[in-house]
Amino acid sequence: MSLFQTLQDSPALSISLALLLGLVIGSFLNVVILRLPRMMENEWHLQAAELRGEEPPEQEAFNLIRPRSRCPSCGHLITALENIPVLSWLFLRGKCSACGTSISARYPLIELVSGLLSAAVVWRYGASASAAAALVLTYFLIVLTFIDYDTQLLPDDLTLPLLWLGLLLNLFGLFTPLRDAVIGAMAGYMVLWSVYWLFRLATGREGMGFGDFKLLAALGAWFGWQALPSIILLSSLVGAVVGIFLVVFRRHRREIPIPFGPYLAGAGLLTLHFGKPLAGLYGF
């Protein structure tokens, strides 16, 4: 009996393995969330130097692999035993083993979220090609959520591959027919593009970033145009509630923008698991 067949015949085993896989990948997602914005910034500096006709400054190799993870306070290199998802943070009591500086609880939280969402995907789709694709989408959305929260950026390096991957998978009708996926990608972009320009013409200000257009286009490519109304409604409602809460209770100044990407990503995850019932509310 093949491993794939074993996983199909044993849902508990496949869900447990998905949980462990998600925890491990969550550790890597932390690296992507932390380093990708800085990698983009370094690239912008290099491009700016080239445009000015200057010699690009020498920089230490910095990517998703190098240099090794280290404590930002004392430079202590993180060992393999100190990098076990969730458990290492608990064992170290949330502090660096060398200098005692606090380690943000966000790192194990992202690992735990990645693990739980991975288990939920396999519980929903079983051991299948759809589950593998849904896991990739889930990890992309986790990274986009936290990068947008930190920097108010939705990198093209993530949104555009996600869009093309959705279209590629739906060549085989994995989540929706290709025709619906293509229309979904176009409509997803154009809807928010139109809202952006209407808001800008009415107020003279930018209401959202271009990355939001591309993320909604990517979700349209994955789930088809029928999913767009529920994605837009859910993300807008949650965004409005959170925005009002921040303004009223946290004294968040209205002129400071609130990233919309996390709400789009959250709506995308809900669509991944409950897409048909949500689309059914609109008769699609």
Describe this structure as you would to a colleague:
- The longest helix has 41 residues, at 11-51.
- The mean pLDDT is 88.
- The protein is an all-alpha fold and 284 residues long.
- Helix 8 packs parallel to helix 10.
- Helices cover 68% and strands 0% of the residues.
Task: Offer a few descriptive terms.
single chain; 284 residues; mainly alpha; 68% helix; 0% strand
Outline of this structure?
With 284 residues, the protein is mainly alpha-helical.
SSE blueprint:
Layout: H1 3-9, H2 11-51, H3 87-91, H4 106-125, H5 129-151, H6 156-170, H7 178-203, H8 210-223, H9 228-249, H10 261-280
Helix pairs in contact: 2-4, 2-5, 4-5, 5-6, 5-10, 6-7, 6-8, 7-8, 8-10, 9-10
Mean pLDDT: 88
From the alpha carbons, calculate the radius of gyration and give it in angstroms: 21 Å
Pattern of helices and strands: HHHHHHHHHH
Globally, the shape reads globular
**Unreliable runs, pLDDT <50, ≥5 residues?**
none
The number of distinct helices, counting runs of at least 4 residues, comes to: 10
Largest sheet: none
* Percent of residues in β-strands: under 5%
Spatial separation of the terminal alpha carbons = 41 Å
Into which percent range does the helicity of residues fall?
55-70%
**Could you say which structural class the secondary elements and strand pairing correspond to?**
mainly alpha
Instruction: Report the count of strand segments.
Output: 0
